[in-house]
UniProtKB/TrEMBL annotation:
<keyword id="KW-0378">Hydrolase</keyword>
<keyword id="KW-0645">Protease</keyword>
<dbReference type="GO" id="GO:0008234">
    <property type="term" value="F:cysteine-type peptidase activity"/>
</dbReference>
<keyword id="KW-0325">Glycoprotein</keyword>
<feature type="domain" description="Cathepsin propeptide inhibitor">
    <location>
        <begin position="40"/>
        <end position="95"/>
    </location>
</feature>
<keyword id="KW-0732">Signal</keyword>
<protein>
    <recommendedName>
        <fullName>Vignain</fullName>
    </recommendedName>
</protein>
<dbReference type="Pfam" id="PF00112">
    <property type="entry name" value="Peptidase_C1"/>
</dbReference>
<keyword id="KW-1015">Disulfide bond</keyword>
<dbReference type="Pfam" id="PF08246">
    <property type="entry name" value="Inhibitor_I29"/>
</dbReference>
<dbReference type="GO" id="GO:0006508">
    <property type="term" value="P:proteolysis"/>
</dbReference>
<dbReference type="InterPro" id="IPR039417">
    <property type="entry name" value="Peptidase_C1A_papain-like"/>
</dbReference>
<dbReference type="InterPro" id="IPR025660">
    <property type="entry name" value="Pept_his_AS"/>
</dbReference>
<feature type="domain" description="Peptidase C1A papain C-terminal">
    <location>
        <begin position="84"/>
        <end position="274"/>
    </location>
</feature>
<dbReference type="InterPro" id="IPR025661">
    <property type="entry name" value="Pept_asp_AS"/>
</dbReference>
<dbReference type="InterPro" id="IPR013201">
    <property type="entry name" value="Prot_inhib_I29"/>
</dbReference>
<comment type="similarity">
    <text>Belongs to the peptidase C1 family.</text>
</comment>
């Protein structure tokens, strides 16, 4: 199958699966306080969100403002849409605090020695995570040692059951989307982005072109790139906020923006692990050769 068609089919399937489980609302639900309360209760039931009586009013007020923002954005002619996901009664400040941070998603990478730049489940530098994997002899599988999003003591037996070893890592040249594209043509890339902003919090589908800064605070995986039928270029990014967010846990982010750092700082800090062989040892700092654009 043509790679472009494969990407489009995969994204279409993801969208259909997501729509089957998503929470929908009508414009009429926003026309009165009573209807908004009913919408909030239906949303809580759908996402099994429990709130105490003392915090319920405050959470409803946040929910109400978020619903209005989502509805307003979706009425505009933007290439992406937002939805009422499970984060809808959280302020953006709360959301970034809880789900931001330069998190490397795999348990083993989070359990490296703590330092000023490596903070366990509070997030850590991607480069230090790769260094740790190299030092301890490898990385176990997600099945063997699943990520549980909490700080606790390491399970040494599981931790030492290495399934993959690396010999180091390479940095992608900073603020260079062409170099990033060449690297992403050969393997997933660990990148950092600015995950602030309500539009990212409630992203549902489409090519994200929304406002965001360059204060890198969240680690994600760049897994590919492509372009829409109308020629809009995008990156394919795998997030760690669950499959109910975005396109089954993925987001397409605009590629080739005017700013050299890329949208949300996507080209500012990127690296990937390397595995050398006796006959083919890569030089650090040299991105792998690229493939034709999808």
């Amino acid at each position: 199958m043509d790679p472009r068609k494969f990407v489009l089919v995969a994204i279409s399937v993801a969208l259909l699966l997501g729509l089957a489980r998503s929470f929908e609302y009508r414009a009429e639900d926003l026309t009165s306080e009573e209807k908004l309360w009913d919408l909030y209760e239906r949303w809580r039931s759908h996402h099994t969100v429990s709130r105490s009586l003392t915090e319920k009013q405050a959470r409803f007020n946040v929910f109400k403002e978020n619903v209005k923002h989502i509805h307003k954005v979706n009425q505009k002619d933007k290439p992406y849409k937002l939805k009422l996901n499970s984060f809808a009664d959280m302020t953006n400040h709360e959301f970034v605090k809880h789900f931001g941070g330069s998190k490397v998603s795999h348990y083993r990478m989070l359990h490296g020695p703590r330092s000023k730049d490596n903070h366990g489940c509070d997030g850590g530098m991607m480069e230090q995570a790769f260094q740790f994997i190299e030092q301890v002899g490898g990385l176990t599988t997600e099945t063997n040692y699943p990520y549980e999003a909490k700080d606790e003591s390491c399970n040494s037996a599981k931790l030492n059951a290495a399934a993959v070893q690396i010999d180091g890592y390479e940095m992608v040249p900073e603020n260079d989307e062409n170099a990033l594209m060449k690297a992403a043509a050969n393997q997933p890339i660990a990148i950092a982005i600015d995950a602030g902003g309500k539009d990212l919090q409630f992203y549902s589908e489409g090519v994200f072109t929304g406002d965001c800064g360059t204060e890198l605070n969240h680690g994600v995986a760049l897994v590919g790139y492509g372009s829409t039928l109308d020629g809009t270029k995008y990156w394919i990014v795998k997030n760690s906020w669950g499959t109910e967010w975005g396109e089954q846990g993925f987001i397409r982010m605009q590629r080739g923006v005017d700013a050299e750092e890329g949208i949300c700082g996507i080209a500012m800090d990127a690296c990937y692990p390397v595995k050398s062989t006796s006959t083919n040892k890569k030089k650090q700092g040299s991105p792998a050769a690229g493939k034709d654009e999808l």
